[in-house]
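Table 4 source record.
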Amino acid sequence: MPGTTNQIEWCTVRLGEDLNWWVVEVSDDVHWDVDGLSIIDPRQIAHLIDLAEPLREYNFDQDIMDRAFIAFKIQKDLGEGLVRLVRTKESFFDTDEPLFGLPDVVDEENGPYADFLNHVTRIRVSMLNDIIDFEQNLTVDELEEELREEENNNFIEGRSVHMFTEVTNILDYVPVGWELDGDDDEDGDGSEEEEIEDYPDIDDEEAKKISESENLKWDEDEEEDESDDSYQGGPPDEDEEEELPQ
């Protein structure tokens, strides 16, 4: 449905119990169905860009990703857990501004988001065949069949799959029984936590409150306050026993 995505200018989003952001309302409710519609937050966008970096050697096209996600920036906090986003023309790859990405799913089968999934699937398969010594080359059909089985299970159990999960399932995919060098070290250096603390500033005052809130800290470990109520004095003096009342 060409041109329909140009009509969407703003959207309202909420943070779900799964710590992912979901769309509540859009400016164009004629072409967009918000039921189960997910949106990718700034940290997730940054993570997808990192995952796509190794694919550049295999002709990853960042313009395809830019077209697949409609960029939004924070406008203001609406209260009650809702945030208002407005559309921007910024590229995810050429800005330091924290952007949300709404997958362009107006045409689910032939639209920009579908093209992006097909693009990264083919490249991921090419990369795996290049670096893993399979007895027989992995095929796109095999990758898609395995992921489709997982999607069907989620559907049967009534779970909505966030599109961040859908994309990372492809970009992280390794066949069962295989692993890539360095997989065990990805989460061991604490760099993710440092990045969370350095969340970029936002000019709009109300939006800044959102950026500094816990809502956007989607991967931060919660700090637990521990209190020690144990006795802090020295050992009791046996000669100074407290006299019990008669």
